[in-house]
Amino acid sequence: MKNYALKWVLQRITATIMIPLTFWFIYSAISLSKMSYDEINIFFNSYVNSLLFYVMMISMLLHSKLGLQTIIDDYVTSKKISKNIKGALNINAYMLMILITVFIVRNIL
Question: What is the count of structural domains for the chain?
């Protein structure tokens, strides 16, 4: 992705999405610390909570991927090393997105 303006916009969009989800997650984490195992299962089997958790995780991964790519573009001078690091970063981010999707869908069904 060479379009730096698009990267900038996507990073701002993911940051905006994460603001309310962070408050939800902190509130939920505090609530989860007081719940039993069965109550935690009920919490994550809820479609709303699973969807909010999924959106938060995906937006966090996209946001961090974009931020790390910017850092690599700014500070890594070797094209070969930069390309290798970005390739590893993309593989890692997309594999995590696939795993999160599989686990959330499997948990809901």
Answer: 1
**pLDDT value for 102:** 95
Element (H, E) at 74: helix 47-75
The CATH number for 45's domain is 1.20.1300.10
State yes or no: pLDDT of 79 exceeds 90: yes
Instruction: Report CA 44 to chain centroid distance, whole Å.
Output: 17
Domain extent at residue 40:
4-108
Q: Residue 80 and residue 85: Cα distance in Å, rounded?
A: 9
Mean pLDDT of 70-76: 93
Q: Which pTM was predicted?
A: 0.87
Alpha carbons 19 and 2: distance in angstroms, whole number: 27
DSSP 21: H
Give CA angle at 101 (42, 59), nearest 5°: 100
